[in-house]
Design brief:
single chain, 229 residues, five-stranded parallel beta sheet, 4pyrrol_synth_uPrphyn_synth, Uroporphyrinogen-III synthase, 4pyrrol_syn_uPrphyn_synt_sf
């Protein structure tokens, strides 16, 4: 099958290059133009006996937390998305439950199970959740900071293409950099909230069926070939 429209992958490593590899394996014309860089932060594990469970909403947290992640292994672990669950399992933390939508929905499931003291392994810049009466303690273990787009960014977005948005921050940054001239561009978002953060005016927006890379790339594949015979 023809490669279709170019696919622009904007998420940072670790993860961005893997997404490009998966996209190319699907026959897509994938280009890696990261808009952020991710780096670990120094952190100290709290007294885990104070918590009922560990919530992890991003695979980046599992990948960048470092060897001290093992100190949290005795807590029941709740993960958003299969990629996060896989990264945690690879780090030696068995996953109690994998959420198929987003952090807010998984938090709702946890509180419905009478889990009220929750440690949240997360980024320095993070979403705001309705805690639903639970005590949610953020433990930042990594940071994601914006970087200047690659020199070829302007040329790539000047022509029809599909952009991937893996997070609300990512979608908002894409929207800011693209500006108002976007009617020729398509966007694949990993969740409805991410799609909303990208705003309106795109030629098409597709939302992944699940919050993971495989589902997002399936949506991107459809967008890259939409209208082609």
């Amino acid at each position: 099958m023809r490669a279709g429209l170019p696919l622009i992958v904007t998420r940072p490593d670790p993860g961005g290059a893997a997404t490009v590899g998966r996209a190319k394996a699907l026959g897509l014309d994938a280009h890696y133009l990261p808009l952020f860089t991710a780096a670990p932060l120094a952190w100290t594990a709290p007294a885990i006996e104070c918590f009922d469970a560990l919530l992890v909403t991003s695979a980046q947290a599992a990948r960048l937390a470092g060897p001290d992640l093992a100190r949290l292994a005795s807590l029941p672990v709740y993960a958003v998305g299969s990629a996060t669950a896989a990264a945690l399992e690879a780090a030696g933390l068995p996953v109690e439950m994998t959420g198929s939508t987003d952090g807010q929905d998984l938090l709702g499931t946890m509180t419905s199970r009478n889990i009220h003291n929750i440690l949240w392994l997360c980024a320095r810049d993070r979403s705001i959740f309705d805690t639903l009466g639970a005590t949610l303690v953020p433990l930042p273990c990594y940071a994601v900071d914006p970087i200047d787009p690659a020199p070829e960014w302007g040329q790539m977005i000047a022509a029809p293409a599909v952009l991937l948005a893996h997070s609300t921050r990512g979608a908002a940054r894409i929207s800011e950099l693209v500006g108002g001239s976007r009617a020729h561009l398509r966007l694949a978002a990993i969740s409805p909230k991410v799609a909303a953060a990208a705003g309106a005016g795109w030629a098409a927006i597709g939302v992944a069926e699940r919050p993971d890379d495989a589902a997002l790339l399936a949506e991107a594949h459809a967008l890259c070939h939409k209208g082609q015979k």
